[in-house]
Design a protein that fits this description.
This protein has one helix at residues 11-14, and strands at 18-23, 26-33, 37-42, 48-58, 63-70, 73-74, 79-82, 85-94, 96-100, 109-125. The protein has 126 residues and is mainly β. Strands 1, 2, 4, 8 and 10 form a five-stranded antiparallel sheet that branches. Strands 3, 5, 6, 7 and 9 form a five-stranded antiparallel sheet that branches.
Length: 126
């Protein structure tokens, strides 16, 4: 999408790299049994910047938690989302999002939605 300093007139800007970025939008439902942690979004091999929302529509638990990871490392703290609500987020440098549903009765299923707008760099000439 052009140079980083496309609106600047200094000599420093003429040396700025030409970079291409991609922006997607993904909205999907998720479901998970009680007492389980599972990935609901994975960006293989890319560290992304994204915004969106995480919703917990219904289930037997009062809440679920969402965690952002870069590989195996937690990025920031987990987000707690209560049943019937959603939480907006902006996060950087993560490769996956995991939902954790607290233990409960066998057969109980939690359901919700993830809507994410990731932005990631695909090419940059230095």
């Amino acid at each position: 999408m052009g140079k980083i300093c496309s609106n600047c007139h200094s000599s420093v800007c003429s040396q700025a790299p030409d970079c291409n970025f991609v922006m997607d939008q993904v909205c999907v439902g998720w479901s998970s049994p009680q007492g389980v942690s599972q990935d609901i979004y994975v960006a293989s091999g890319l560290n992304i910047v994204a915004s969106g929302y995480l919703a917990y529509d219904e289930g037997a638990s009062d809440f679920v938690t969402f965690s952002f990871f870069n590989g195996g490392e937690l990025v920031g703290g987990p987000l707690t989302v209560y049943e019937g609500s959603s939480v907006a987020f902006t996060s950087i440098n993560f490769t996956r999002i995991e939902v954790t549903v607290p233990p409960g009765a066998e057969g109980d299923i939690a359901i919700g939605q993830l809507c994410i707008t990731p932005r990631y760099q695909i090419e940059c000439d230095f």
